UniProtKB/TrEMBL annotation:
Range of residues in the leader sequence: none
Gene3D superfamilies with a match to the protein in the record: MFS general substrate transporter like domains, Multidrug resistance protein D
Keyword hit for Cytoplasm: no
Subcellular location: Cell membrane
Pfam families recorded: MFS_1 (PF07690)
Membrane topology classification: Multi-pass membrane protein
Keywords: Membrane, Transmembrane, Transmembrane helix
The keyword Membrane belongs to this UniProt entry's keyword annotation: yes
Protein name as catalogued: MFS transporter
Transmembrane annotation, as ranges: 26-45, 57-76, 82-103, 115-138, 150-170, 182-201, 207-227, 248-272, 278-301, 313-334, 340-359, 380-403, 415-438
Domain named Major facilitator superfamily (MFS) profile: residues: 1-442
């Protein structure tokens, strides 16, 4: 549900604007407010799981998310919809990190690998289905509710999920010794917000001065946050050194940012070219993305069936195949032709390659973090994936729009091709970061007695 709600609203935004008579800026808050709240509170939500118990916080998060979805669907005006979307994103931030924490605490070995594979498949399916389901629900105009079913559809799903969490998720008490480190939480949230808010709202507003100021503030806020975390090292800081200071962890995060940003940015570039350049509908574009979702899900579900020694090569190979796939995709659509079988095949192949790399990277990240810090690690990893997605949308969206001065198919095709070339370069750099990470892990393992 959390992933689905990131994309499903995009399709319904014209209907929301027409029905509620909102301005462009308010509509942007409705669409992006969810993402801002979600990204900013992820690490705090992960710590809440450590403190009060992951199953308990997951159940509360699901319940609140379901309630906020109902309020979104019944919102009488734009004010209530914006407020409910912000609270919906906050609920997701307390819900999503618990999943990865529970995977790490509940499973080991092949069981953990299988659970991570399913996690990756669900993310892929949710991201792709958002646009398709949104288009179908708005087009069906169920009970003349127009856009409201895109939120109300979460209610029966959320109720069923809440019952499943209560009935089947192992209940372990939280660690009352874990604190919230209020100053650390505020510093971290300010750092993330200063980075996320400009990425979400800056491109659509033409990068106003305030967005640049916030981005500049990210560095001093990050330094302040790091200084506080170092001082609080003996008092359970919100970001423990055992997580972010683990050998190779920074290179791992760089790999994840480059992989996620290139993938999310390329999807945006494809959607912009298909809809604005070629005149395809949002539903048609969503249907074209199905092969990519299937490929990513396939890779996420089957990587563990291969010998363990090859898993690290999936990381590197996935990024390099992705880079080659972007180049081929750009070449195949360079003449402003409609997407054909070559596009569908390439989209399936590069998405599968990313799926084969996604599972091993999460598995290795969790395996090198002590179980006590499962929540912190989950929060950092999920936040990294979310920030990578926002970064990709902002950067690659800006590249595309900088090269498009009208909506002609030919010019859009050229901008699309150049955008994918940059995505390919990011994949190559990501592969190099992955090599450094693997090398550092091997050195650490060889040093063990």
């Amino acid at each position: 549900m959390a992933v689905l709600d990131v994309t499903i609203v995009n399709v319904a935004s014209p209907a929301v604007r027409s029905d509620l008579h909102t301005s462009g800026s308010v509509l942007q808050l409705i669409v992006a407010g969810y993402t801002v709240a979600y990204s900013t509170l992820l690490i705090t939500g992960a710590r809440a799981g450590d403190r009060f118990g992951h199953a308990r916080v997951l159940a509360i998060g699901v319940l609140c998310f379901t309630l906020m979805s109902f309020i979104c669907g019944m919102a009488p005006n734009s004010f209530f919809l914006v407020l409910a979307r912000l609270l919906q994103g906050a609920s997701a931030a307390f819900m999503v990190p618990q999943v990865m924490s529970l995977i790490q605490r509940t499973f080991e070995g092949h069981g953990r690998a299988r659970a991570i594979g399913l996690y990756g498949a669900v993310i892929a399916i949710g991201a792709i289905c958002g646009q398709i389901v949104g288009g179908l629900l708005v087009g069906a105009n169920i009970l003349h509710l127009v856009w409201r079913p895109i939120f109300l559809v979460n209610v029966p799903i959320g109720v069923a999920l809440f019952a499943l969490v209560l009935g089947f998720v192992p209940r372990r008490g939280g660690d009352s010794a874990r604190s919230f480190d209020l100053i650390g939480v505020v510093c971290l949230m300010a750092t993330v917000a200063s980075f996320v808010i400009p990425l979400v709202f800056g491109p659509g507003l033409g990068w106003p001065v305030w967005s640049i100021v916030l981005l500049v503030l990210v560095v001093p806020l990050a330094v302040l946050s790091a200084w506080h975390e170092r001082r609080a090292s003996g008092r359970d800081p919100i970001l423990s050194a055992e997580v972010v200071g683990a050998r190779g962890f920074v290179w791992l995060l760089l790999f994840m940012v480059l992989m996620q940003s290139s993938y999310a940015g390329s999807l945006l570039a494809q959607a912009l070219h298909f809809e604005a350049g070629l005149g395809l509908s949002a539903l048609h574009t969503g249907l074209l993305f199905i092969t990519g979702g299937v490929g990513f899900a396939l890779g996420s579900l089957t990587w563990r069936r291969f010998p363990t020694w090859i898993h690290t090569y999936f990381m590197i190979g996935g990024m390099l195949i992705g880079a080659a796939g972007y180049v081929i995709m750009a070449w195949s659509l360079r003449t402003a032709t409609d997407p054909a079988s070559l596009y569908l095949t390439v989209n399936f192949g590069l998405s599968a390659a990313f799926g084969y790399g996604f599972g091993p990277i999460l598995s290795m990240a969790l395996s090198h973090v002590p179980l006590k810090f499962a929540g912190s690690a989950s929060g950092v990893l999920v936040s990294t994936l979310q920030i990578g997605q926002l970064l990709g949308i902002a950067v690659y969206g800006s590249i595309y729009f900088a090269l498009v001065h009208n909506t002609s198919a030919k010019e859009s095709a050229g901008a699309f091709a150049h955008t994918l070339y940059w995505a390919a370069l990011a994949c190559v750099v990501g592969a190099l970061a992955g090599l450094v990470f693997i090398r550092m892990i091997r050195v650490k393992e060889e040093a063990r007695p």
